[in-house]
Amino acid sequence: MDDLPILSGDVGDVKWDYLPVENIEQVEIIKGASSVLYGSSALNGVFNIRTRYPVDVPQSRVSVYSGLYLDPARKETVWWDKRPFFVGVDFSHRRKIKNLDLVVGGNLFRDEGYREDEYMDRARLNFSLRQRSTAVRGMSYGIKMNGMLVDKSDFLLWRDSKPGALRQNPQSVSALTGNRFNLDPFIEYRGRAGNRHSLKSRYFHIENDFADAPDKNNRSDQLYAEYRYQRKFADRIEASLGTAATRTNSVAELYGDHSSMNLALFGQADAAIISGLNGSLGVRFERYVLDGVVEYSTPVFRTGLNYQLADNTYLLASSTFCALNP
Fold it and tell me: Which helix (H) or strand (E) holds 46?
């Protein structure tokens, strides 16, 4: 999200309901192993979300939505007396205040679920502040925040395949309350000669509490920082050099307490070879330490070609070496 990883610190998954969809400007999908700029765990590609910035005219938006779950064709699987429903509201506001860009958004959502003992209640709030410097031309800095409270229960195991297909096995019911929070300070400088320096960081916190099964309680804290330098040469070649560091601490009774450290150096060049044909070449070196004892270092290479056959039609080819950290 905004060029920074949003994977949870403990299990490395994406909390999809945490993403600020009310303030999404653009979604970028990079197919294939994109391991040079985004780390060696991006084996299948990258899904990058860019959040909105203000335009010249202030904009506000509110969206309210609701729906019902209809009875399934197999009437014996209906477990409810009244049809379950879902309802939600999104809001966002963005504006420029002189040289300050302000974006605020939020979401309230309730879903009763069509499967027994599966529900979700969440409240999400996010904001973004970016100051465009008047003292140094081309410099901007700011901070972004996203936070969410959640109360939910997931459907894990059904009772049986017939009348109980939509009813959860009582032994698998596991309700949780939790919170997610990230804070992203950043600073960027764009020079007149096409130079771009950016320093971005993220603190990401996740906490889950299981009232009926406290042995499943868990918490993770992740610190990430990345410096990247980019420059264009003759409008045909763009080079990127950078370094990144990730520090993660996780606390859990179920799988123990762990800490990890990841350091990386990377570089990539993208070039317009001929009309319609683009190529890229990159290398990344990572050093991974788990609990202070497990160390793993590896170089990662990537080459790729992208040829435009027709409008909205591309032919892709790539060769990449990837390594999945423990």
Answer: strand 45-51
For the segment 219-253, what is each residue's pLDDT rounded down to a tens digit? Answer: 999 999 999 999 988 878 999 999 999 999 999 98
CA distance 169 to 158: 5
CA atoms within 13 A on the CB side of 294: 8
Distance CA 168, CA 115 (A): 7
What are the CA-CA distances from residue 325 to residues 6, 109, 115, 262 (Å)?
17, 35, 36, 10
Query: What is the model's pTM?
Result: 0.89
What string of DSSP letters covers 255-291? T--EEEEEEEEEEEEEEEEETTEEEEEEEEEEEEEET
CA distance 60 to 62: 7
Q: Are strands 237-252 and 277-290 parallel, antiparallel or unpaired?
A: unpaired
Q: How many Cα atoms sit within 13 Å of 142 on the Cβ side?
A: 17
Cβ distance 123 to 110 under 8 Å?
Answer: no
pLDDT in tens, 37-80: 776 556 677 888 999 999 899 999 999 999 999 999 998 899 99
**Paired strand residues for 61:** 92
Domains of the chain: 16-320 (2.40.170.20)
Please list, residue by residue across 213-235, b when 16 or more beta carbons sit within 10 angstroms of its beta carbon and e when fewer do: eeeebbbbbbebbbebebeeeee
Q: Can you read off the two tokens belonging to residue 21?
A: 């969809």
Phi and psi, residue 43, nearest 5°: -75, -35
Helix (H, G, I), strand (E, B) or coil at 6: coil
Element (H, E) at 306: strand 294-310
Alpha-carbon span 125 to 127, nearest angstrom: 7
Q: Which residues are registered as beta bridge partners of 21?
A: none
